[in-house]
Amino acid sequence: QVQLVESGGGSVQAGGSLRLSCAVSEIIYSSHCIGWFRQAPGKEREGVASIGFGSTYYVDSVRGRINISKDSVKNTVDLQMNDLRPDDTDMYYCEAARICVVLTLPNKWYTWGEGTQVAVSS
């Protein structure tokens, strides 16, 4: 059964850190690109970072502050977020795709999880 389950969200002050984790079904862990996306009500969904097949991609607004990594023991894809800003406040989702490309290019992403909320106060 394919599953992606997000965890690790919370509330922090600006400048703080959070680590999000996406538990990925073993059946797709190594065969798919896993990406983190974020969306707030009324806003467009935005790709944050993705990892797969030896490549990582980041959206420019988070480059240098956010790191995506895989833990092959736990079958998770983690998003370490540092120096958080109020505009990082969003619901964060992890999704899977069969290929990994630059986040701004079209790609077919599959969503399973309910997301995890990140709130950053100034």
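^ that was protein a. below is b, sequence first then the tokens
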Amino acid sequence: QVQLVESGGGSVQAGGSLRLSCVASGYSFSVSCMAWFRQAPGKEREAVAYIASDGSTTYAESVKGRFTISKDNAKNTLYLQMNSLKPDDTGMYYCATQPGQTSHCWRYIYGFWGQGTQATVSS
């Protein structure tokens, strides 16, 4: 079965960095759309970044130039490098996948989710 396990969250001051990881299993990681979402307290979940099977990426406007999504197919691991963090970046970060979809990853509803990892940015 599909499993996604995130790690790497923590507490940092504004301007700092965090690197999130998501280890995937139970499906063909290398040929599936992957994404990072986040949810702040009292707000709806929002998409942060997507990566397609060919490595092409899409970002939310709010994180462009600061966050980088990447993956290591040999390790079945998805990453999110978060730099120049702001208090507004605080939230629970989730990785997600939709097996069988390889491109235009922003189009799909994601059916498989990890348990999330908390990132807290203080001012």
